[in-house]
Amino acid sequence: MTKRPGMLDITRRTVLKSGAAAAMLGGAGSFLLARPNGARAATLENVHIEAAAKAKELAQGRSVVLTILEPSGSLGNVKPVADKWTEETGIQVKYVEVPLGEINQKILLEAVSKTGAFDIALPATFGVPDLVESGILVNLDQYAQKYEPEDFQKDALYTIGDYYKGSLYGYQTDGDTYVMFYLKDWLDNPDEQKAFADKNGYELKVPETWQQLDAMMAHFNRPDKGMFGGALYRTQFFIAWEWWVRFHAKGFYPFDDDMNPQINNEAGVAAVEELVAASKHLYPGARTNGLFENFEAFGQGDKFCNIGWGGTQKYLNSEKSKVRGKLAFGPTPGGMVKDSLLQTPYFNWGWNYVVSSVSREPELAYLFTLYACSPTMSTIAVRDPGGYFDPFRGAHYKDSEIAKTYTEEFLVVHEASMRGSIPDLYLKGQGEYFDILRVNLQAADVGEKSPKDAIDETAQAWERITRRMGKRSQLVQWKFLKSIYPETVRDRLV
Amino acid sequence: MSTEAVQRHSGPDARKGWGIPIGLASVLPAQITVLFVVLMPTLIVIWLSLTDWQPTAGVPWYRAEFIWLWNFYDLWYDERFLNSVVRTVFVVAVCVGIELLLALALALLFLDEWPWRKLAVSVIILPMMIVPVDAANAFFMLFNERGPINHLISVVAGRPYEFSWLSHPLWALIPIMLAEIWQWTPLMFLLVLTGFMNLPENQVRAALALGASPPRILFRIMLPLLLPVIVVALLIRSIETFKIFDPVYILTRGGPGAATETISMFMYNGAFVYFRIGYIAAAALIVLVLVVSICMALARPIKRFQG
Q1: Contact check, Cβ <8 Å, B273/A435
Q2: In chain A, which residues have their Cβ closer than 8 Å to the Cβ of B74?
Q3: What band does B299 get if pLDDT is binned at 50, 70 and 90?
Q4: Which residues contact A279 (CB under 8 A, 6 or more apart)?
Q5: Could you read off the pLDDT of A52-92 as tens digits, one per residue?
Q6: Partner of A94 for a Cys bridge, out of A67, A101, A213, B205, CB 3.0 to 4.6 A?
Q7: So what's the ipTM on this one?
């Protein structure tokens, strides 16, 4: 890293910022309890009614239009709820649809241009820290204190991405945790079970560890017979996510307490080596196929396993899929840490309802997000079989329509994964941290770099990024993020 | 009105309104507009290249922290940037070179009249009418592991062939370059054909009458005469190919690793994934200087020809 003029100023600013944030946090993990309760009339059951009533009162009969910036393909989830909102409040909702992969950039542009083009947006959760730092998101603490029922966030199964440096900036509206898919027929085949047990010394069943999964993929990979070990992703956008789970399952956080990367320790290198070795047992399109091609490929029924989300299951449980009703599910495999199993399911995408800081109606916009994420309304949103939103509240798992779309078996695994999911790297510059990881992992995967070089170079780049972003400021968020890792995982990672 | 005043208003100075010559006054609005459209963004890019501005910094771009030439210094040591520049120059050289050879060959074929000639020209120029993203998508399908290319090789070889073109660090550039060549050879062909058709016929006829062989006529008379057209065609295509983005984005996204990352892809990642606008502005300026230098070098023969 080159020392640049003005760095002293950055440091001074970030110190002040960190100090303020640290003071705001008041202690790791206590932010939820620390938020004042205030007088709240709403309960979890009637929060949508209360939010709509309050919005109607605030609008005072004015002709208000709220504009939502949403990723293409999510309208099926958003519109049914927005229609009900309009019905109950008289407040109109307008939609601006942008391509899936560009929505965070569009929101960032708004931070620069400040046109007031939208009031509410649905950015990908991993990009929220950058959006907060750009100043385009409203800090929702004051509104939450005023309107949010006591158990609103506790009822949601994954809320880590809603907070940045201890403050609320949005509500999660999509349960995007990673889940594993297996071909049940292959797992239950007695001949395969015997052959596998004879060779490996343990039972062929839904694997608990990555080591077991890798052995099973190797066992089933018979390209000459049209059988493949798996359909795990090896394309640039997705490859780092698998590594992230493999690495965490070895018992480590990506950074130490001083924000130094520890991804290039033995566990990190081993995780790359295992990932690269597993590539040999994947189907030929693993390195080129994107999201939907992957669904389609696994839907052919000739690959033992796949990794994916609720959206994957929506496809696999549809008429188009040959594996409908033939799947077994499991959480992402874990690892043996100090002789006991450590599972680190991973929430790597998701969409958050957020409020634009240049909105003319931030309070109404907030009330809409509260309304849309309430148990009753979010259930309506998640029901859409063609949309993105996957279950993320307790109520969703009890809904018969949702169960029909996903199947009961899948929802059991999904709910458990959601409750214990580790977060993405919710830091300013997430895109940069992850992109360099992706590039180096892919280079290792195709043999351009050794696993050690790949991960060493990533760690060096991470150090540079951290310094450029302002180490103290990043440290404040990292400490906060660490403090809200799921309890089942937090104390087992070092 | 005094005589002096009449003289002032009826003489050459009568064209002046508020002291501005009418010629200047009439072009001024257009000039100011052009200045605003061209100069302002350039000035902003120059300013940004001297700052560390990111939209995520929470400050407006005009209040970004001034860091002198550190972006340029960092770029000098940024292996990924340098590799992407070298890779792009390589792609330009290969693609434009092959396009020129193909265009010359095709143009010679189309110099004489033959049945269906016009229809054939229309068919040849079809690829450049296709949206680049669609063309890239077609090549993505063609070069997929189970795509027609591998299938064809399998048929010829007599055994299953599933080479992963798009995920091989060396071979992945081939489909990208083929997509570019397939789509833009027609433009080069049109330019060269037009040039051939406008060559003065006298010299060729004289050479034929003197018994010169066709290759000799081509290399000693036609190609030298065509040189200005060839240089212009090379210039246009080099500038365009330098900006190659669609095939890279669709076929490999710059991967595997950064093995096919061209300068446009590097900038896309820097600006829209990393949000390092200042850094990318500096890279853009370097590329601009590079492209202008290449263009000036290529344009030299035209000046010589004119001189």
Answers
A1: yes
A2: 2
A3: confident
A4: A234, A286, A287, A445
A5: 999 999 999 899 999 999 999 999 999 999 999 999 999 99
A6: A67
A7: 0.84
